[in-house]
Design brief:
The chain has 323 residues and is α/β, with parallel strands linked by helices. It has helices spanning 16-27, 62-75, 124-129, 138-141, 157-166, 186-193, 292-319; strands spanning 4-12, 33-35, 49-50, 60-61, 79-81, 85-89, 95-99, 104-112, 116-118, 134-135, 149-153, 172-176, 198-201, 204-211, 218-225, 231-235, 238-241, 245-247, 278-280. A hairpin with a 6-residue loop joins β14 and β15.
Amino acid sequence: MTATHSTRMLILGSGPAGLSAAIYGARAGLAPIVVQGIQPGGQLTTTTDVENYPGFRDVIQGPWLMEEMQAQAEHVGAQMMWDTIVEIDLSQRPFRLVGDGGTVYVGDVLVIATGAQAKWLGLDSEKLLQGKGVSACATCDGFFYRGKKVAVIGGGNTAVEEALYLTNHSHDVTLIHRRDSFRAEKILQDRLFANEKIKVLWNKAVERFIDGGGVAGLVGIELRDTVTGELSTIEVDGGFVAIGHHPATELFRGHLELDEDSYIKVETGSTRTSVAGVFACGDVMDKVYRQAVTAAGTGCMAALDAERFLAETDFEAKAHAPA
């Protein structure tokens, strides 16, 4: 027999956004159910040192932080479900979602916190050195490279912004781009070219991240010239891949309004989506900041928006109920 779970607040995703929404939803008496998805705990479970989350003077571990957030959510009344949603019906309330094992989830409101994943180059050496010199977030990890040589790979807004940000920590930033011109906005390019700490390597593709062995981690990057095929090497302590992100929104295509980059569109200043009663928070709707603390903040916003929506609809339903 197929199991069915019903709740006032159904949450998809269990990163900082989803768990913050669960904490606030539970405290509002909505008994939220959190469907954890394919990566319980979100991207922080793959992050070791976290040095910029408020409230901790010392470096903390990403997996530990997510364990604590989940424990807090469960302590105040949220229920965790280990499942992956494969089918949704947002045509009417309550919303109906189906997990890959056939379990049905029904929610009066839906909070989407499915996040986004950084795009990687797909190199074996890249995977080997992730967290050991190779990163996809300068804002998260740039502080660890104070006074060291770093490189950014990419040619869009994200890459240029990451390179500019890294000049706060490094005097030697190299931007590597496989073409001979950037896709980034002109104002960002102007700032980049005016910054003496940044040099650009045109027509270069990353062939390999070089492992120094032992505790050394990344020590250099091997490059291939995209015009001549010639190989060259640069010495770096940190390499930042900045070629974009994949928001986890494929499930919602055709059901919710998405922007040109496939992020869920929300009303300015809120987490309301194009469907009444559906709210989005965290990296699935934020392509600008992409930080754990901002994800947690929008998770709080989503829970408050959802609670107010339920209060208003409940009041209207009672007002129009037969005497």
